């Protein structure tokens, strides 16, 4: 994908430049003053030749601008396609495994991140000490993990 994107980007640059040069040549060839000089009837003194109006080239100029904008779009897309290749991931300074796995002694917010499971961590046991309307204590105990972290 990366190589195809680079090739298409280069082709857009070349084709837009060729179209811009071709349009420039068309403008010179269709210039009313130049056309009048080439006509044999206008070279005679008895005939008076004047251009009626100038040619409208705005839509052709717009097509050249859009050609270059399309090149810029493809050239900008090269970076995003490059990020998806293996060449980009091999150039990283830190391996991905070292970034994902944190040491066991790392604490965040008072909770030990590596102590999920039956041996410790988020296990809370005990009573909340709520008393019902007859004066009897009801104990609610909670055990097991109460919070899960999204680890990818």
Automatic annotation (TrEMBL):
It is a multi-pass membrane protein. Residues 1-86 form the MARVEL domain. Residues 1-20 form the signal peptide. It comes from the Eukaryota. GO terms for cellular component: synaptic vesicle membrane. This is SYNPR protein. PANTHER family: SYNAPTOPHYSIN, SYNAPTOPORIN. The chain crosses the membrane at residues 65-82. Its main location: membrane. It holds the Pfam family MARVEL. InterPro entries: Marvel, Synaptophysin/porin. Keywords: Glycoprotein, Membrane, Signal, Transmembrane, Transmembrane helix. Residues 92-152 are annotated as: Disordered. Belongs to the synaptophysin/synaptobrevin family. PROSITE patterns: MARVEL. Residues 104-115, 135-152 have a biased composition (Polar residues). It is found in: Membrane.
